[in-house]
Amino acid sequence: VLSGHVHDPFDFTREAEGRSLRMIGTGTLSRRLRSTRPSYTALEVTQAGGLTAWHRVFEGEIAA
After folding, report:
1. For labelling alongside 38, which of 5, 14, 28, 64 has CA 20 to 30 A away?
2. Using CA atoms, how far apart are residues 39 and 25, in angstroms rounded to an integer?
3. Contact predicate 6/24, CB 8 Å
4. Is this prediction's pTM over 0.70?
């Protein structure tokens, strides 16, 4: 499950009906103050069907 607009990133797995369910939420690049710095999540899907998620903190300036 991929989710956006949550402002604070997360990546965790829960069990549901005997199966693993991975939930990934991304940060935001908003200029407003949050509990975490502006960020985004990069996803990589491998040919074998694997998924890697990298949380990236944005270090630059956000234009107005």
Report:
1. 14
2. 11
3. no
4. no
Beta-carbon count within 10 A of 31 CB: 11
| 36, amino acid identity | T
Render 8-48 in DSSP notation, one character per residue. S-EEEEEEETTEEEEEEE-----SS--SS-SEEEEEEE-TT
Distances (CA, A) of 17 to 1, 2, 25, 28, 32: 15, 19, 22, 31, 39
Are 56 and 39 a contacting pair, CB within 8 Å?
Answer: yes
Which residue in 8, 14, 63 sits closest to 41, CA to CA?
8
